[in-house]
C-alpha cells in the first residue's frame, strides 16, 4: 500500500542529497507541479525558485490566486507578467499550430531568462508516471503540439529532477492531502490557455470576451453540479463569425460563443455532455446580457473523435 508519510520522508532526504545548488520549477498551481515544488522546498528551502509565467491567456483571477497560494506556501517565487510579450508575438497569427508553437517557444524564452537570472543548475518538474509511460499516449501530441518545457534541460544544461515520476495521480493527491496543500482541484486547462479558445487571431478585446464567457460557464456549471457530477471539462470558445441579432430594439451584429462540455477519462476520447436545458438557458442568457459584443450562443454536441476537445 502507498504511504504518503513514508514517501515524503524518503523523497525529501533523497532530494537533499541530489540537489547541490539552485533549482527552478515552472509551477502552474496545479496539484502535480505544486506538490513537486513543496517537496523540493522542504529539501532545499529558498534555493528553489517557483516561477509562474502569466501569459495573459489565463482564466479570470488566475494570477492573483496563484500568488495567494505561493505566498501561503512560503515559496521563494516569481510571478512573471509576460502578457504583453505573448500577445505581441501572436498578433495576426491565424493558424492553430503556429499559435501553439509561438506560445511554447515564448514560454521557454521567458522561463530560460528567469532560470539564468536566478543561476539555477537544476530543473524540477512535476512529471508523473502517465506522462511518460507509453500507452499509445503519443497520439495526441501528433494531433496538436502541446507545449511544455521538455527540451529545456539539455538546451540550458540543467539537471532534470522529477520527484513524482513514479507516482500516479491518486498518489500525488494523497501526498498533497498529507501535506495539507489544499489545492482546489480544477478541470484540465490547456497550456496555451485562452489563446486557443479564440478561433483565429488573438487580440485584447477577444481575450476579454472569451475570459468572461468562460468564467460564466464555469460559475454556472459549478453552481449546478457538485464536484463529482461535473463534466470533465466545460468552457467557452469565441468564434470568428458574427451574426445579426437584436439588442434592446436595435439591430446588432455580434459575436458567437460556443459552449463546450465533455466527459472523458484521459482526454484521448470524449463524449459531449448532456447538459440540462435550464443550465444552458442560464449560460446563454448571462453571456448575451453581460457581454454586449455577443448575441448568439451555441452548444457543441460533437464527440471526440471526430472533433477534438478544444477547437484549435
Ligand atoms: P484535444 O483538444 O486534443 O485535447 O482533444 C485533449 C486534452 O488536452 C488538453 N490540451 C492541452 N493541454 N497543452 C496542454 O497542457 C496543450 O497545448 C493542450 N491542448 C489541448 C485539452 O484541454 C484536453 O483536456
Secondary structure: elements and pairs:
Elements: H1 4-18, E1 23-26, H2 31-44, E2 48-54, H3 62-72, E3 77-81, H4 83-90, H5 96-118, E4 122-124, H6 129-132, H7 139-143, H8 152-156, E5 159-161, H9 169-178, H10 204-224, E6 233-247, E7 250-263, E8 271-272, H11 277-290, E9 294-299
Parallel strand pairs: 1-2, 1-4, 2-3, 4-5, 7-9
Antiparallel strand pairs: 6-7, 7-8
Helix pairs in contact: 1-2, 1-9, 4-5, 10-11
The protein binds xanthosine-5'-monophosphate.
Mean pLDDT: 93
The coarse silhouette is: globular
Distance between the termini: 41 Å
Helix and strand pattern: HEHEHEHHEHHHEHHEEEHE
Strand order of the largest sheet: 3-2-1-4-5
Annotation field: number of helices = 11
Percent of residues in beta strands: 15-25%
**Gyration radius over CA:** 21 Å
- Tell me the major beta sheet: 5 strands, parallel
Bound molecules: xanthosine-5'-monophosphate
Structural class: alpha/beta
Total count of strands:
9
Low-confidence stretches: 134-140
- Helical percent range? 40-55%
Give an account of the 3D structure.
- With 312 residues, this protein is an alpha/beta fold.
- 42% of the residues lie in helices and 19% in strands.
- It has 11 helices and 9 strands.
- A 5-stranded parallel beta sheet has the order 3-2-1-4-5, sandwiched between helices.
- A hairpin with a 7-residue loop joins β7 (250-263) and β8 (271-272).
- Xanthosine-5'-monophosphate binds at residues 100, 140, 143-144, 146-147, 188, 190-192, 233, 267, 304, 308-310.
